[in-house]
Amino acid sequence: MTIARGRDLNGRKAVVTGAASGIGAAAVARLLDEGCTVLAVDLHSDGLAGTHNLATDVANAAAIAAEAAAKLGGCDILINNAGVCPAGAYEDMTQQMWDLALGVNVTAVMELTRACLPMLKSSHAARVINTGSILSRYGDAGLVAYATSKHAVLGLTRALAMELGPHGITVNCVQPGAIETGMTRPMFDSNPDSMTYYTSRSALGRIGQPEDIADVMTFLATDDARFITGQGIMVDGGVMVHS
What we know:
Elements: E1 13-17, H1 22-33, E2 37-42, E3 52-55, H2 61-72, E4 77-80, H3 95-121, E5 127-131, H4 144-164, E6 170-176, H5 185-190, H6 192-201, H7 210-221, E7 232-235
Parallel strand pairs: 1-2, 1-4, 2-3, 4-5, 5-6, 6-7
Helix pairs in contact: 1-7, 2-3, 3-4
């Protein structure tokens, strides 16, 4: 048996959702640096910087897959990164907030992976990389819908890894801790104590940057990660060491 080794991603084709900012934008930049052709997908066109861009709702799985087939000629790497975080007390949570969290964070991941599956099956090194959260492992007040969705992402990752493994497709979930992005910055600005809290809990004494997550995603896309699948990989600066 010949085992592919190395971290050369030159010429591989990647689809990244939630690509206009934060972790998604960092992942696109890193994959481009590694020689990938990238379809960057986001609801917002500002900030999209892939080889090819598609401004659309992540729920449009068929359209995204069709664009990847037409513009990239396939898909070797699928990074399901788009996400939302509706926050608020459980008693005040609306059905709309619940549906939004589960729809974007879980259902869209399932549907886009399925839409891209024919292309992934034809790849010699297919990778599905989902963005979870440290909340994939525990809960937190005010984030019931978000925590539920991220638990589901981890379960989906593990189940898909078993089902798609026979096709040579690895499926993993990166679980970021507190990362400074456009989505989290308003929370940190409005509640400086939260920044202090996560910084103090981190073994490294800081919160994360999008590049900290993008680097792990890129590693999981390489041949060096060929035997890693079904895993939820904490990238949190040691925050969960306390738990």
